[in-house]
Amino acid sequence: MKSLNRKSAEIGEKHPVKVIQFGTGNFLRGFADWIFDLMNEKTGFLGSVQLVQVHGKKPATSLIEQEGLYTLLTRGFQNGQTVDESRLISCIADTLNPYMEYDAFLKLAELPELEWIISNTTEAGIFVDSTDTDYTQTPNSFPGKLTALLFKRYEFIKDKSFKTIHVLPCELIEQNGKKLKEAVLAYAKLWQLPAAFNSWLEAEVKFYNTLVDRIVPGFPSDEAEAIQEKLGYKDDLMVVAEPFLFWAIEGPESLKKLFPASRLGLDVIVVDDLQPYRTRKVRILNGAHTTLVPVAYLKGLRFVGDAMNDPEVSEYLQSALWNEIIPSIDLPKEELEKFAEAVMDRFRNPFVKHQLSAIALNSISKFQVRVLPSILEYIKKEDKLPMLLLKSLAALLVFYRGHYKGLDIPVNDTPGVMAFFNETWKVGDPYEVVPSILANTSLWGQDLNQYPGFSDRVIQEVIELLDQEKTVQA
Q1: Beta strand pairing status for 205-207 and 165-169?
Q2: Are 208 and 351 in a shared domain?
Q3: Cα 222 vs. chain centroid, distance in angstroms?
Q4: What pTM value is reported for the model?
Q5: Whether 37 and 82 share a structural domain
Q6: 363/410 Cα distance (integer angstroms)
Q7: What is the tens place of the pLDDT at every residue in 147-185?
Q8: Are 252 and 349 in a shared domain?
Q9: CA distance 139 to 145
Q10: N or C end: fewer C-beta atoms under 10 angstroms in the chain?
Q11: At CA 32, angle to CA 175 and CA 213, rounded to 5?
Q12: In what order do the strands lie in the sheet containing 268-271?
């Protein structure tokens, strides 16, 4: 089987580098790089992506050996159809490690066509490391590396006319662009860079808040050999991604011309305010996950796909979404239902084995952020209790008991939360346990017993679950 490189794949000349990408992992290669590759083919973007490693002090051997080429496998369930497609991605120009090649990294600042900087350095990646005191040495943090690069560009440009830099961080934190800019300015202060650099930064470097969404499981280990046989070449960098993709950028309308991804028919949008889309994602996608987990797990299911194939659980989740979560959100109903349909398709993806126990990590704080707002808004708007969401809350309380139907439950939360549930469940009586849990303001931000009928309903749901357990044990 032939190796994958530009000669064997008959890939022509590289386009000039327009994008510097901090991060070489699965997500950006299955998300942003795929988009850049399509834009090169269909919109005349004609730009290459220069990868920069942000973690580790060894070279990205496979990326170097394959000359940046890899196969993206789009696999999943969409609009009632199974999707299984492949595309050879050829937009990567090169890869370098700033710990090993710091001078070469800084030299990237001189690229004449450079216009975009993107990143995905995990949620913890945007921070200021106070030990990064000397920018002539490779900074430890991603914002430190970015600041050093931008300062080098500032020094190199002087009076030259270069393109404005647009920074699109893809880290999954709120106001990621704003926080990254703040970190860069903090480094400018730490390093005592000239005030003129700050002025240049304000005028010539634009930081945007973004919201990204796509599941990218990565290398298909279990099927790699068969897939490579079908492709006709060896590819150690294959990446699997689901069909669904969403990228919202908070910025001016003019950005659409510079970043023409919307012309591809992809759900890539430029908006004035990200918050409604963040609310939609948290309450519907994340909220559905968190709502589903305890109900499905207590029924004996262990994977999201299994839960979606269970008629009773699948119908429960759909009813919770359409009848209780969607009515609680102040966005157009049609838009929310379309998004919810896509969520259900994503959960049905036969190519992704998503363990319920993995989603259950820190479920209490997740429930507070993802599901409780829907419960409270529903009560406020409809003046009645959302019975399906309270069923999930009851299942969650039983889940945190740590055992059910003779089996241990892999509860995984902070020590304080674990200790509270362990101690509270020792009482045993749901009429005492449930109100005690609902009254814990550190868990929910308020005493949930204050809502009429709330506690009574959850108690009844808990009793029903415990009765089912007794039936099995008998």
Answers
A1: parallel
A2: no
A3: 24
A4: 0.88
A5: yes
A6: 12
A7: 999 999 999 987 677 899 999 999 989 999 999 999 999
A8: no
A9: 5
A10: C
A11: 55
A12: 209-213, 246-250, 268-271
d(CA 224, CA 114): 35
Residue-wise pLDDT for 40-73, tens only, equals 999 999 999 999 999 888 899 999 999 999 999 9
- Helical segments of 160-303, H only: 176-190, 195-204, 224-231, 255-258, 275-280, 287-298
Cα(285)–Cα(213) distance, rounded to whole angstroms?
Answer: 10
User: Do 249 and 210 meet the contact criterion of CB atoms below 8 Å apart?
Assistant: yes
Report CA Rg, the chain.
25
Query: In this structure, which amino acid lies at residue 321?
Result: L
Look-up of token digits 């009515």: 327
Rounded to an integer, what distance in angstroms lies between the CA atom of residue 397 and that of residue 454? 14
Assess whether 291 and 214 both reside in one domain: no
Terminal CA-CA length for the chain: 59
Kindly report the CATH number assigned to the domain that includes residue 42.
3.40.50.720
Q: What single-letter amino acid sits at 121?
A: T
Q: Which of 442, 472, 360 is nearest to 409 (CA)?
A: 360
Return the structure tokens found at 101: 């090649």
Distance of alpha carbon 162 from alpha carbon 154, whole angstroms: 10
What is the rounded distance in angstroms from the CA atom of residue 461 to the CA atom of residue 390? 8
Residue 394 structural domain: 284-473
Cα–Cα distance, 29 to 50 (Å, whole number): 12
Helices 363-370 and 387-399 pack at an angle, to 10 degrees, of 170
Q: At what angle do helices 387-399 and 287-298 cross, to 10 degrees?
A: 60
Structural domains in the chain (count): 2
